[in-house]
Design goal:
The chain is α/β, with parallel strands linked by helices. It is built from 9 helices and 16 strands. It binds 6-phosphogluconic acid (6PG).
Length: about 325
């Protein structure tokens, strides 16, 4: 390819054979044209989701009498938050259930895009998100997903050697990439031998080349590349990618990829996608777990504070995947 973007070889290992059924949920019909889904077991809070009524199935409506009062006020709050029809908030009682649903969500999109356009462009962050993707490398998905059509990117990367413990490439490689047969040429790591600024330019050049070859689509409304799916984590301060609260990079409107040399979260030198690029994605999943992030979740979803995660959107669908502690302030 024309870009000097590093294409890293992947070692393949045998898939594991654990089953990963999707967590079940029932639904309750709420006023204001919203649906919220609830657990099958009334004895424990499992999950609820909020979406515009058009996206709920008839099963969800049929199950509408199976309400659980315990979670109703929280659900109503989330319904208010989810009134943007492109935004859904899904809450799970455990990170394990979240991981199960996230795998199903990702696999469904993979099927859809592989069938529709013969490719699936996926972007990941670093951090705990990668662990939450673990069900994808287990049965049934490890065998059913057409990995040969995946194109794998990073929304941000630390400018450190690929074998360094701080490397987002290493993080994804060790627990994900090394376990699935994505063609090595479809894995787009940064060239970390460059300065942060040059590595960001290089990555943008790489993306431009992929637009030319139609591997990457372009958003008709923004003119930025339109990734099929972006999987993002969020820091306790509400940062996403390497876009930190109050940092001028949050306002970048022209560049696709930019650099930061004063990241408040170490290491200081990084490259990051900009908001216009992130928000041009077809689907975005924001995956957040733990009580330490509850305030930032509240700030982002209830707009009680100005955190970068609150600026994330998607062209088709933004889904917040939260565990119960992360939504404790909603
Ligand atoms: O390289 C990075 O630092 C990440 O891409 C960053 O945006 C991360 O996703 C969040 O900080 C959440 O990380 P945790 O989930 O580990 O808190």
């Amino acid at each position: 390819m024309a870009s000097s973007c590093f294409l890293r070889s992947i070692l393949f290992s045998s898939p594991t054979n654990l089953s990963s059924p999707r967590s079940n949920s029932l639904s309750v019909f709420f006023p204001k044209n919203l649906t919220c889904s609830f657990p099958t077991s009334a004895s424990r809070f499992e999950s609820f989701s909020v979406s515009s009524i058009g996206s709920g199935s008839s099963r969800r409506l049929a199950d509408s009498r199976k309400k659980i009062s315990e979670v109703r006020s929280m659900a109503t709050t989330a319904a208010e938050i989810g009134k943007d029809e492109k935004k859904r908030v899904e809450v799970f009682d455990t990170e394990e259930n979240l991981a199960i649903d996230l795998a199903k969500f990702t696999a469904d999109l993979s099927d859809k895009f592989c069938k529709e356009r013969g490719a699936f462009t996926v972007v990941v962050s670093g951090g705990s998100l990668i662990k939450s993707l673990r069900k994808l490398v287990e049965s049934p998905y490890v065998d059913s997903i057409d990995w040969s059509r995946w194109h794998f990117f990073w929304v941000d990367e630390r400018v450190v050697p690929k074998h360094h413990d701080d490397s987002n490439y290493k993080l994804a490689y060790d627990s994900f990439l090394s376990k699935v047969p994505i063609p090595p040429g479809n894995v787009y790591a940064i060239n970390e031998s460059l300065s942060a600024e040059a590595a960001a330019d290089d990555y943008e050049t790489c993306l431009k080349h992929l637009v030319k070859t139609s591997t990457l689509r372009v958003s008709e409304s923004t003119g930025f590349p339109k990734f099929d799916l972006m999987l993002l984590g969020m820091g306790p301060d509400g940062h996403v990618a390497s876009l930190f609260p109050g940092h001028s990079l949050c306002n970048e409107s022209k560049k696709w990829v930019t650099s930061i040399t004063d990241s408040p979260k170490p290491p200081s030198e990084r490259i990051t996608f900009t908001f216009p690029l992130i928000n041009s994605s077809a689907h975005v999943a924001l995956v957040v777990c733990g009580s330490g992030k509850a305030e930032a979740v509240e700030a982002a979803l209830k707009k009680t504070g100005n955190v970068p995660a609150g600026s994330v959107s998607a062209e088709d669908e933004l889904v917040w995947f939260l565990d119960k502690p992360a939504c404790s302030k909603l």
